[in-house]
C-alpha cells in the first residue's frame, strides 16, 4: 500500500525541511511510522492535519545517522527521542533498539523481531498500528480489533509514563467516542486513588503534551465519572 508513503510525502512538503529530513532518515536506516499519522490516514484516506509524526528508525548506517544529528541538531525530547521543529510541525524520531519495552526487557525478543513486536510495546490498542515503510507492511491487528469492538483497551500495562498515557486515553476517547475496557477503567481508577491531585496532574500533563487544553477540566471530570458506562 504505497499510497501511505505518497500521502506522507505530500504532507511533509508543506513543512520544509521535513521532507528533506525524512529522506535523510531513510538513508540512515529502515523507518516505521506509528500511531497518530497512521490513524489519520486510516480515518480519512489522507494526511491532512497533524501536530507531529512519530518515526521509528532501525539505524543501518551510523555515518548517515550522525550526519543527520550534525546537520539538523535535533533536540532530545523528555522521553528519549529526537525532536525536529519544521515550522509549526514536529518530527519525533525514536531509535528502534532503544524502545523502552525492549531496553528494559519487558518484552524479550530478538532484535530481528523488534519491528514485528512493536504493537506489543504500546500502552493502548489504538496505538498498536505500525507501518514498515521499507517492506510496505502493516502491523495493525490491535488497532483493527479496537475499531471492530469500539473499545479502547490496554496492551502493555507496565509503562514509565502512565499519566501521559491516561490523558491520551481521554483525548482518544473524545475523538473516537469509544468505550473503555474494564481493565483500562480499573487501571485509571487505581491511579486516581493513588494520586490525591489526579485531575490537576492530568491537566498539567495535557498542557505539557499538547501545548493547549484539548479537554477542559469539567469535561475530563465528567468523562472520569462515566468511563465505565
Provide a brief overview of the structure.
The chain has 229 residues and is α+β, with helices and mostly antiparallel strands. The chain has helices at residues 3-12, 18-28, 36-44, 62-72, 100-103, 141-149, 162-176, 182-194, 198-210, 217-226, and strands at 29-34, 52-59, 75-76, 82-86, 89-95, 130-132, 137-139, 151-152, 179-180.
Name the shape in a single word: globular
DSSP strand content? 15-25%
> Nearest-angstrom radius of gyration?
18 Å
Number of helices: 10
Q: Residue-averaged pLDDT, rounded?
A: 93
Order of helices and strands: HHEHEHEEEHEEHEHEHHH
Major sheet characteristics: 7 strands, mixed
Strand segment count: 9
Measured as a percent range, the helix fraction is 40-55%
Q: Would you write up a description of this structure?
A:
The protein is 46% helix and 17% strand. The protein has 229 residues and is of the alpha+beta class. The strands form two sheets. It has a seven-stranded mixed sheet. A two-stranded parallel ribbon has the order 8-9. The longest helix has 15 residues, at 162-176. The model has no long low-confidence stretch (mean pLDDT 93).
Amino acid at each position: 500500500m504505497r499510497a501511505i508513503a505518497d500521502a506522507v510525502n505530500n504532507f511533509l512538503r508543506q513543512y520544509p525541511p521535513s521532507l528533506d529530513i525524512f529522506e535523510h532518515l531513510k538513508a540512515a536506516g529502515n523507518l516505521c511510522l506509528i500511531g497518530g499519522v497512521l490513524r489519520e490516514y486510516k480515518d480519512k484516506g489522507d494526511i491532512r492535519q497533524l501536530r507531529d509524526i512519530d518515526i521509528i528508525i532501525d539505524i543501518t548506517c551510523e555515518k548517515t545517522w550522525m550526519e543527520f544529528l550534525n546537520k539538523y541538531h535535533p533536540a532530545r525530547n523528555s522521553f528519549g527521542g529526537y525532536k525536529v521543529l519544521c515550522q509549526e510541525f514536529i518530527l519525533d524520531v525514536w531509535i528502534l533498539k532503544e524502545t523502552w519495552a525492549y531496553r528494559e526487557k519487558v518484552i524479550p525478543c530478538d532484535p530481528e523481531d523488534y519491528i514485528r513486536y512493536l504493537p506489543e510495546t504500546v500502552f493502548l490498542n489504538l496505538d498498536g498500528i505500525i507501518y514498515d515503510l521499507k517492506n510496505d507492511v502493516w502491523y495493525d491487528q490491535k488497532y483493527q480489533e479496537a475499531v471492530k469492538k469500539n473499545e479502547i483497551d490496554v496492551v502493555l500495562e507496565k509503562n514509565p509514563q502512565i499519566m501521559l498515557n491516561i490523558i491520551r486515553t481521554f483525548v482518544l476517547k473524545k475523538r473516537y467516542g469509544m468505550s473503555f475496557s474494564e481493565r483500562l477503567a480499573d487501571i485509571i481508577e487505581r491511579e486516581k486513588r493513588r494520586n490525591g491531585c489526579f485531575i490537576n496532574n492530568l491537566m498539567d500533563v495535557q498542557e505539557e503534551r499538547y501545548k493547549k487544553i484539548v479537554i477542559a477540566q469539567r469535561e475530563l471530570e465528567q468523562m472520569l465519572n462515566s468511563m465505565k458506562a
